[in-house]
Model the fold of this input.
Amino acid sequence: MGFNIANAVYEHQRRHPDRLAISCEGQELSYGELAQRAGGVAGQLSRSPAWAINQGFRPRVGILASQSIDACTGLLGASWAGGTYIPISLKSPEERLLTILEQCQLAALICDNRGAGLLSEKVLAACPPLVLLPEPGLHASFADAKVAFQDLHAVPTPSPLTAPVQINAQDLAYIIFTSGTTGLPKGVMIPAGAIEHYVTVLTALLGLDADDRVLDVSELSFDFSVHNMLTTWQAGASLHILRANRIMNVVKFAAANRLTVWNSVPSLVGMLKQIKALQPAVLPDIRLTIMGAEPLPTTIVDLWQQAAPNSAILNLYGPTEVTISASSQLVTKPLAVTPQRNIMAIGTPHPGLEAAIMTADRRLASGDQPGELALSGPQLAAGYLNADDLTAARFPIIDGKRWYLTGDQAFCDAAGRYHHLGRLDNQVKILGHRVELEEIETHLRELSEAELVAAVVWPVTDGTVRGIVAFVAGSLIQAATILTGLRLRLPAYSIPSRIIHIEQMPVTPNGKQDRGALLRILESDVSKPA
Amino acid sequence: MDNKKKVQTFLRQLLADYGQGPEFGDDDLLVTSGLLDSQAVLRIVVFLEEEFGLDLAEQGFDQNDVDSLTSMMRLISR
Done:
């Protein structure tokens, strides 16, 4: 028994090694080639001295790579060898990278070309003993001999290929970092049993087959990427990666490659509409569309049904803490719309999962009473890395059952469908990325030397957040200086588009920043350029 | 101001908003290189439509058309 996220690739290379598995920037690998490369990485890792050290958990491998074939072979290889993979965003400024490296106790780090470009002297000094990268020679001069650089592409593959190590359900498959309110990113620990359950459920739900050609536009540090890779490879289909720097050409890319499955956040469709890339029936080959990680507005549904008239649309909802997605709603006529919000319902929990609405005093709400959405079942994360108190607070045991409190406000309608009513806290989604406004504010406070600061989302169009604006009260530090500081600490999607100095922060009766009043300042100011 | 100057001035401001320096070559790929992102592409499209009356729906959007100063000038003169 046991599971490995590389199992599907291993099985398909045995049965049909020549079938296409992955395509990226003109490079294509069959299942046989992908398995050879991943098996080669696994071999290098498992022979390294650090792999044998028992730290009380499975060896952890940082993946400083994204949207590349090397990123995929890296994470498959790390998993294949029985390790836990930890994607590290290439958008991380140096300070954030160092924070993550310090928290993880890695046995090895795997880089693609872009990741290797982030290996500054400070980062190298924080690196684990083994670093696998495409061109190790470039780093051979690094003076600190405690890091060994090896060629990611060296394939001393054993023949026949050794099968992936089967790991226990409670052992960790991956750890993904998301925004944390304190200013430190938090690592969500996903066990093998949780991702096994997810892949089984989604395989049945999606009905992909080996002829499907699947779009992947997700960064590796965003768990939508896990969905894209694993559901595709489980079906023996092919994954087509389009990098973020070409994303606005995604319609041309999907049409030219005759893709059949579209995975994206709804806000991408909103952006494609704005650049006029969505003409009627421009994507006739798409047969299934999966939208997730953000509320799905009905306006986006309408647009998409015109652009991809032959496609079914599935709305997925779920936090990273419950392994990618926890519920689904198929778009059917009449639309299952959430009243007053003009977004699609988030639907019914995946088989095997349980959803409930909790009142403020943590009792089950009755009828269609709104409250905090809580989730339970085999997809729950093990918790947050090195943060037991936070884990206990967000994953409480209620009446003998372990739940995750999502922080999302919701209600259940008479048909048993759940509806999302917004956040109970100040977490927002920017192009699908989770951003805690308090995290930005923590850094704003330090950099502006002002006590009262606020970050608000602005503007919001078609129900989608387009950006962030920051306010600082009574600060003498220039906006440009504060912005420069933020860029060193936060990923690009979290950076405010502007910083506005105000004399006094409007506050609510209980002393918190009055975000509504700040939005009204922006609304009265729309004529000025952003 | 001639058209090229207008676009140049706009791009300098856009780059500044992304924390990038103001210097760039006519043929530098500003989006594909990662200096600017998809949100910036939206702002470029809106600028070209409003300033030069372009209708991208008619032409069919191609990111290559808005990737460099040269490609934008070619688009404007089409």
